[in-house]
Amino acid sequence: MTLNAWAGARNWTPTDAAHLLRRAGFGADAQEIRDAHQAGLAATIERLLSDAPETSEFVETEAILQKLAFASENINDLKSWWLFRMRRSANPLVEKMTLLWHNHFATSNAKVRSVRNMSAQNDLFRKYALGDFHELLHGVAHDTAMLVWLDVNDNRKRAANENFAREIMELFSLGVGNYTEHDIKEAARAFTGWHVHEGKFWFDSRQHDPSNKTIFGNTGAFDGAAVVKLCLDHPACPRFVAFKLLRTFVCDRPTKEQIELVAETLRGEKFNVGRTLRQLFASELFFGPLSRAAIIKSPIDFVIGSMKSLDATPKTGEMTRVLALLGQDLFEPPTVKGWDGGRLWISAASLLHRTQYSVGLITGEHYGELPKLSTISAELGNDSERALAKLAETHLATPLGAEARKAFTNHWKKSEGDERCRGALHLILTSPEYQLG
After folding, report:
1. Is 413 exposed, middle or buried (0-12, 13-18, 19+ CB in 10 A)?
2. Among 10, 55, 180, 243, which has the highest number of CB atoms less than 10 A from its own CB?
3. What confidence tens digit (pLDDT) does each residue in 288-305 have?
């Protein structure tokens, strides 16, 4: 059972290009969509999966922001560093996957209390963003921030702490229902002796229980690394990872059949995420009608996406504040389960904050004048239907409803120039349809 290639690839349209760029990154402006359309599907997928060189300006600014965060020991400065990367990196898919892993291996600085350790974990996610999930899980199991987050220093030979063992199975590799409480207790014994000492992973052999353990029906003198391997070899593991990939790139509620399809691809690619995504992004599953407008935008997708589509220059401090209000506070997920997302992204309060952010963005109240407003206005022309079609191609995953279309046409007739363009963008960005990606 394999992913079927998308039959519509021969008739690749700008709308299709926009769909891919929204899902595999954080959106794009009109020129980037035109470039992707001209390049074609295969070339665009390869570009997204390739390690593109960053500009010298990006490298210099990113380094300054990270050093500032290290010097201040203020987690908000580290948030600004990552938001800059999301907005400006030439490798948007890497940053999108880094965000996925941040949510999958949810760790909060509220407990870790170390900007350097949170940054190191973030770099670990980035290193394996499109790589081997086996290597990523083993890396996370030795990550200092994760070890502090899950209380490994409390895990001793005579008093095994189950936190780390439980999360490795429940949240990182298998999911609920694919292990027993006995498996957890035995795995906790295997992780005894895994500690943090002087800010680094340290194995204290004196605190390790070397006796036999039975996990998933297998018996042996397992240590922590062996438990991680047992989890990776478990048949539930590829399905669990496939579910996370589908929720990020295809739909909020994937079916069992979709999960098994992607899991089989992941198995065939030996858990290499990049090669799995190469097949997914070229598939009927990704481009089919059931995947279009099937994901509610996360606050990050909403904020970074609007910035990219309008080529706005962010004030990262202001963005951090907005994202916290919208419910996605980077480096400080609410629980060990991360952000649930989906329909929970939307509430009366969050919609109000999304509207207020959109108004501030369009008017320049918080972010300065949009550099492309005049250009956008000129490109849209005078015809309202043509203007709406162009804006929809760049900004919307699904057409505006009848009422919104009527409001758009009325506004277009009653205004002109930049003000007409600003009002049109306001209608688009505050519409229910814009909340879907």
Report:
1. exposed
2. 243
3. 999 999 999 999 999 999
